[in-house]
Amino acid sequence: MSSAATTLYGGVETGGTWCVCAVGTGPDGIVAQETFPTGAPDPTLERIVAFFARGPRPEAIGIGSFGPVDLDPQSPDWGSVTTTPKPGWRHTPVATTLRDALGIPVAFDTDVNAAAIGEHRWGAGRGLPSLVYLTVGTGIGAGVLVDGRPVHGLIHPEVGHLRIPHDRGRDPFDGACPVHGDCWEGLASGVAIARRWGAPADELPDDHPAWAQEAEYVALGLLSIVSVVSPHRLIVGGGVMERAGMVAAVAKMLRELNGGYLDSRMLGDEVERYVVAPELGDRAGVLGAIALAHDAS
Amino acid sequence: MSSAATTLYGGVETGGTWCVCAVGTGPDGIVAQETFPTGAPDPTLERIVAFFARGPRPEAIGIGSFGPVDLDPQSPDWGSVTTTPKPGWRHTPVATTLRDALGIPVAFDTDVNAAAIGEHRWGAGRGLPSLVYLTVGTGIGAGVLVDGRPVHGLIHPEVGHLRIPHDRGRDPFDGACPVHGDCWEGLASGVAIARRWGAPADELPDDHPAWAQEAEYVALGLLSIVSVVSPHRLIVGGGVMERAGMVAAVAKMLRELNGGYLDSRMLGDEVERYVVAPELGDRAGVLGAIALAHDAS
User: Fold this and answer.
1) Are strands B275-276 and A61-65 parallel, antiparallel or unpaired?
2) Under an 8 A CB cutoff, do B257 and A129 touch?
């Protein structure tokens, strides 16, 4: 066994839009990295294999995949993407394909659990017993750590499809989710914003009414998360949350929604320490995948 | 140390309406039990002390208390009820009062975490890695077990105050929660039903429209729970859920709300094995408190 300081691990984040591959030891020790669009499964997985085959070779790789995925080690479909609406990806055996092609151990979790692990190991969640990493981008997803470990359970957390109040008088938009219409993701994802307002979120000016509405919707879903699993911190990332002031606006809204009921400074005066941006930025997922590989080997 | 079979433990469930005290080894080994209304804090705690002082003396006692409570072992307020609206009970040091009066170790958790532990040890959750115990009675609360252990986190799960969709066209009732109005508990608790319809739930006939509405509201909140923590089973108890057919109606509604998105038989054909009634009935809390005492000593 080589020493922790010199052993290289691989990380792959197969996101809905981008794939990120890296080899290294952690945030300050990445020796190779590549990012490319997530295309059809076969060419995408081939490109991942080619990246790791080029070297330097990692000891093991961790994969954080968009979901839903099968995380049950007893299941014949362990390591697969399952019922995704993403074209071509239904029932794609991501983990076993990479393991068989590369001949090294692979660890597998959701992209958001990987990001939660990354932030816990090296970012905004260091030292905390529990946390939730939320991403609001093309879709909405969350990774949940309890006692420092990712929650799987029956399937895995899949927060995007919980329901939040939707006042059609104020917001007549029917919602963008092909399955549920106005679930959380259907109302508050980047896709929902683009469809409601006719322009992508990043083209909307700071004073557009979309932003106050978005802060309220995101906070309503976060309130469900706080009510169910009471994490020690909420780390809120993803493209939509990169707009200046949004994380603070969501924090303020969460405090208002709590209305003083849950008696913690974290939901009161110090809510901006409770709801925070990721410290690893968009590297949280791939770095968490490296941590997964490290822990599994 | 005496053997597990003969060691007696005490359990106390201090519920919002009733207190249940018991001494024994488990569901088939209760040697003393008493139930009385939860009154003001001082006489209620005195009555609990008197029950255990009479004997047989337990080795330790476990307490499952209505919340919110302080579960942080580092806090000077550990073991207290904190910000409850229940008259007189704010900042009542339940656990330390009983410990000091009885001179034996005490373990402390929420009433619903205790019920979750009881069902996990001896009831509908035996052998499962994770579960949620939901009660719909005077209020709404849930205990959450992950890896067999109760989730605490920043405070503890407090599901009653998450928000669910509320269509005021179909249900113009403003909600019964003094803090949030139409939060989950504000729409679907026993208090909400009684206030909306002008009669307590148990006086409404089986064909009253209240029941279909109630099944939908309860399922909406359960969907949030499933989305956030993905438990292996949902155990649904409390007085309102004792109406014949309600647990099955909630299960069916949860399946509809999922719409086939989460790909598990447990949210499909076998949903009535996923959403189930407690096996310990209204003894889940006090038996779970006995299990808490056992585990702590």
Assistant:
1) unpaired
2) no
Helix, strand, coil distribution of chain A in percent, nearest 5: 40, 20, 40
Q: What is the ipTM of this complex?
A: 0.96
Distance (Å, whole) CA A67 – CA B179: 36
Would you call B197 exposed, middle or buried from its count of C-beta atoms within 10 A (0-12, 13-18, 19+)? middle
Are the beta carbons of B179 and A225 separated by less than 8 Å?
Answer: no
- Pick from A28, A26, A95, A42: nearest CA to A67: A95
End-to-end CA distance of chain B: 10
DSSP B58: P
In this complex, the residue of B161, B224, B266 whose CB is nearest that of residue A162 is: B224
The beta-carbon neighbor of B157 closest among A230, A260, A274 is: A230
Contact B160/A at CB under 8 A: yes
pLDDT tens track of chain A, all 297 residues? 445 558 999 999 998 889 999 999 999 999 999 999 999 999 999 999 999 999 899 999 999 999 899 999 999 999 999 988 788 999 999 999 999 999 999 999 999 999 999 999 999 999 999 999 999 999 999 999 999 999 999 999 999 999 999 999 999 999 999 999 999 999 999 999 999 999 999 999 999 999 999 999 999 999 999 999 999 999 999 999 999 999 999 999 999 999 999 989 999 999 999 999 999 998 999 999 999 999 988
Chain B hits for A220, CB-CB cut-off 8 Å, are 163
Residue B151 tokens, joined: 């989730």
Q: Which of A51, A52, A84 is nearest to A67 (CA)?
A: A84
Q: How far apart are the first and last CA of chain A?
A: 10
DSSP letters spanning B141-193: EEEEEETTEE--TTS---GGGS-----TTT-----SBTTTBSSHHHHHSHHHH
CA distance B259 to B253: 10
Token pair for residue A33?
């990295």
Interface check B128 vs A, CB under 8 A: no
